[in-house]
Every structure is written in structure tokens, then in C-alpha cells.
Amino acid sequence: MATFHLYLGWSLIGIFSIAFFWSLGVWIARRSRIGIPFWWFLRLGAFLFVLQMAAGILMWTSGLRPANLLHIMYAALVFLGFFAAETLKPGGSWRRLYLRAGRPFYEPMVAFLLSLYLLGVAIRAFTTGLGYP
Q1: Which among 85, 98, 131, 133 has the fewest CB atoms less than 10 Å away?
Q2: CA separation (Å) from 13 to 20, 72, 104, 118, 119?
Q3: Would you kindly state where each structural domain of the chain is located, as residue ranges?
């Protein structure tokens, strides 16, 4: 189970890296929208995160603990990042509130910052799980 959890961690870092460069490329190209496939790609990451969280809970109940309990906090921050992604996607509640207020919403920049956040927090979750400070 620990190996499965480790490989899921690597795959999440890979997905967030792809999302980071995808959104950066769209932002640099000055496109106004990033497109629905990006948001579905993040949902794939959310699905893998749910699998990883289930594996982590099974490891915890079997007596395996992360080397540093900050690992749990960073996992919770990844979860919050996915919550933000769901509310900022096209049709999401935060996005609707923002647009209703009459403010411009530049989707590529938001997607870039969100994927940067997810990548950074996932790397920290990975490293604290391995025992690094």
C-alpha cells in the first residue's frame, strides 16, 4: 500500500506540473480562455488524490504513520486547492460571484496561479511524507 501511495504522489506531481506548464503557455500566448479540457484534467488529479487519500487512511489505520505530521496538513491544503478549482471553473460559484460583481476574470492567470499552488503544496506533501523537513 505504501508503494501505491508513493506512486500516486509522483503521478499527482506530474499532473500538477503538466497543468502548470499548460496554464503558463496559455497565459503567455495571451489567450482569453484556457478551455474546458484543463478543468477536466484537474478533475483527473482530484480523482487520483481521492485514491491517494484512501490509501493514506488505510496506511494510517494499519499503523503506518508519515515521518512528519505536516504531511497531513499539506494533504488538506491540496484538498482545498481542488475545492478552489471546482468553484473557479466555468460555471463555478466563485467565478459567478466574481463576474456578477462586474470584475474581469482572466481565466489563464487564475488557472496558472491555482496550478502553481497545487504543484507547490503537492511537492511539500510528498517531501514531508518522505521525512524531509
Answers
A1: 133
A2: 10, 16, 30, 9, 6
A3: 2-130
